[in-house]
Amino acid sequence: MSEFLSLKNIEKRFPTSGKEAYIALTDVNLDIKKNEIISIIGHKGCGKSTLLNIILGLEKQSQGEIILNGNAVSEPGPDRAVVFQHGSLLPWLSVYENIEMAIRKIMPKLDALTLRERVENFVSMVNLDAAKDKLPCDISEGMNQRADIARALSIEPDVLLMDEPFAAIDSLTRTTLQELLMHIQQTVNTTMIIMTHDIDEAVLLSDRVVMMTNGPAATIGEILEVNLERPRNRVELQHDPEYIRCREAIVAFFYEKFAKEDE
Ligand SMILES: Nc1ncnc2c1ncn2[C@@H]1O[C@H](COP(=O)(O)OP(=O)(O)OP(=O)(O)O)[C@@H](O)[C@H]1O
């Protein structure tokens, strides 16, 4: 694995009504390898979404740079796809049409047969064959997230960014979605960056867990390697010493070193 996404000295300041700007992020440095799966975990307000928007090119950092495949990121591009907490499918298009439209935009020259095969392949990847002709409003929130993941992956991005993708989903469905994502991680070659609040989710899904300190001026506090083989089985992991070690390290970071009062 070679390093291909680097966050170098990222700082983000937001203007305020006063004289001083609000420093949301400072001195964020991270090298991510191709096909690596990273979770970024932190208390509310530590700047996860801000960092995600900077990597996507939707927000400009105040200092530093993001290098992807040797180039500085300055705007959004098809090499980065995103799944947000609340799905972002176009409500007037079916699941199939949403995925089809995403592919058409990036690969306008695909012939009709290849396009159809490609859409159906991604529909199947997230087990939505039976619901492919439904509108987003006629399927559950979990199915919307599955469709959104399929749509994001269908353009074959180099990096898939996910902003608390399962946070709005009930816990049993969330488990199913995490299982599905683990299966997808085994089948596609895409670097993934998952923003989350959920300790078990971070350990289960990731190769490394990046722990953010609290804001203002949040930064990376610790990085934890998760040395668990894949495929991973969540039930067996409950007794795995490495899983327990990772969990304890994250709990210690967030509840001892960087505890946060309820606001
Ligand atoms: N446009 C903005 N203007 C001013 N301050 C902002 C702006 N966007 C974010 N912030 C502040 O920057 C900090 C980081 O916000 P951000 O939304 O990135 O955190 P987060 O970790 O994603 O939070 P959450 O877990 O609640 O989604 C917060 O204190 C927030 O209030």
Automatic annotation (TrEMBL):
Cell compartments where the protein resides: Cell membrane
Transmembrane helix among keywords: no
Keywords assigned: ATP-binding, Cell membrane, Membrane, Nucleotide-binding, Transport
Pfam families found in the cross-reference section: ABC_tran (PF00005)
Molecular function as annotated in GO: ATP binding
Residue ranges of every copy of the ABC transporter domain listed in the record: 5-239
Signal peptide: none
InterPro entries: AAA+_ATPase (IPR003593), ABC_transporter-like_ATP-bd (IPR003439), ABC_transporter_ATP-bind (IPR050166), NO3_transporter_ATP-bd-like (IPR005890), P-loop_NTPase (IPR027417)
Highest rank taxon of the organism: Bacteria
Membrane topology of this protein: Peripheral membrane protein
The protein's name in its UniProt record: ABC transporter ATP-binding protein
Organism: Sulfurovum xiamenensis
